[in-house]
Amino acid sequence: MNENTPFGGDKKVGASILAKPEKAFINWAIPKIPSWTNSRMLTLMTLVWSAGIILTGYLASVESFGVLWIISVCIFLQWLTDSLDGSLGRHRNEGWVKWGYYMDHFLDYIFLCSILIAYSLILPDNFKYLLFFLLVVLGAFMVNSFLAFAATNTFRIVYLGIGPTEIRIVFIIINTLLAFFGKTYMAPALPWILGASIIGLMVVIYRTQKEIATLDIQTKNS
């Protein structure tokens, strides 16, 4: 991109499975947000939800798994503020486009780390290395998005119909199973979750490099 190229980071491409109902909710909710709330406040709330998740993981490790429902609440609230911040900024023409792009997606990574940190406090030691590898793989999806954006000026965070909203639902389901059944079913499922994530990443990388190679060929031939 050069200085004359319009910034594309605030215009995500691709639609996830739940994109339509999510968009309908956002359009309904934006006009109802109080005037004292702005998009930057909503973006920074991810820090609060992330701290709440880590604290809950600690409490679950020393007291009872019964508190794990708080993690699900934090995940839901993070979805809420993260879904509304950009749309609110555009609705009110606040102008924090590049700041929002940077902070929103950096804090998404912090939020992901907070969930895996909380689970690392709960799961047996011999399964914790799987959480590390899961963080590497899920982080690679983010790296892929940012590198592809730098090459194409097109920002995509939805792959194979799966986006951040669907991933949050998966985490809520996992958290619910942990709360009801403890570690019994969660720990053995981790290798399967990691394996599925690796396969998905390989498909995404193949498609992304193919798209960028096509752009190179088109540029060369033009």
TrEMBL record:
Keywords: Membrane, Transmembrane, Transmembrane helix. Gene3D superfamilies: 1.20.120.1760. The chain crosses the membrane at residues 41-60, 66-85, 106-123, 129-150, 187-206. It comes from the Bacteria. GO terms for cellular component: membrane. One of its GO terms (molecular function) is phosphotransferase activity, for other substituted phosphate groups. GO terms for biological process: phospholipid biosynthetic process. InterPro entries: CDP-OH_P_trans (IPR000462), CDP-OH_PTrfase_TM_dom (IPR043130). The keyword Methyltransferase does not apply. Pfam families: CDP-OH_P_transf. This is Phosphatidylglycerophosphate synthase. It comes from Candidatus Magasanikbacteria bacterium GW2011_GWE2_42_7. The lineage of its organism: Bacteria, Candidatus Magasanikiibacteriota.
